[in-house]
Amino acid sequence: MNAHRRHWYYAMMGTCVVLFVMAWAVVRLWSVQAAIGMCLVAMVIPPVAAIIANRHGPNERWFDEPQDDDRGSDAGTGDPESDAWWDELEGRKGKDHRR
Question: What is the distance between the alpha carbons of residues 78 and 73, in angstroms, rounded to a whole number?
Answer without folding.
Answer: 13
